Amino acid sequence: MPRSLLLSLMIWLVEILFVTALVSDEWLRSVQRSEDAMIVSYLGATKDGEIRRDAQDWFDTLCVRTGIQGSVWHYFIPTEAERQGSMGFEEVGRDNLFPFMAERLQVLWDSVYQTLRRFLGIIAWWPFLLAAALPFSIDGMVQRKIKQSNFAYSSPLVHRYSLYAILGMIYILLLSLTLPFPIPPQAIPFVLTACTLAMNVHLANTQKRV
């Protein structure tokens, strides 16, 4: 399990590096515009505006006000004063390397902002998740109690793989935060419903004595 977790984390980090290195800023902005249109059509303009404001507040709090964004930018991009103070190197990278670095950094920060927006988009579905998880959880525990009373079989295989299914769908949500193409908002309740179904199966097949 720890090895699988490490592999999953490495895949996610490779995805982030891929997006930062190869995807253009204009592409990310077009993805965001497409997602905005889908959110407005599915959840309404009010909810879309709320997610926008919250994402900007989170981004400013985490990256701007802390100075992280400015520090990273200054680490890779020299100021004009630093250029003039570098005798003989004033024009090095001015027209090729540093514009490229600036574009990659802009993609990185746009990706962070997009990740926050998508995360808040998932959070917006918490009432739906609660409404779905509660009855499925109760039903799973009732099924387990019934199996305890009539000595029905609780499958350890089903129990294990239903847990893997839950973890897999959570991982899919994690990957979706940084994917460089539009994610339909309808996909979120679908994945959450699948998680609650897997949780129901997991609880129903929990061993009779824990």
Task: Note down, in words, how this protein is organized.
By secondary structure, this protein is an all-alpha fold. The chain is 79% helix and 0% strand.
Can you summarize this structure?
The protein has helices at residues 2-22, 25-43, 45-64, 68-76, 80-85, 97-123, 126-150, 156-176, 187-204. The protein is mainly α and 210 residues long.
The helix content is over 70%
Mean pLDDT figure: 83
Report the count of strand segments: 0
3D shape: elongated
What is the alpha-carbon Rg in Å?
A: 23 Å
Termini, distance in Å?
A: 21 Å
Q: What is the H/E string?
A: HHHHHHHHH
* Content of β-strand: under 5%
Count of individual domains: 2
Residue runs with pLDDT of under 50 for 5 or more positions: none
How would a crystallographer describe the biggest sheet? Answer: none
Tell me the number of helical segments per DSSP (H or I, 4 or more residues long). 9
- Helix and strand composition category: mainly alpha
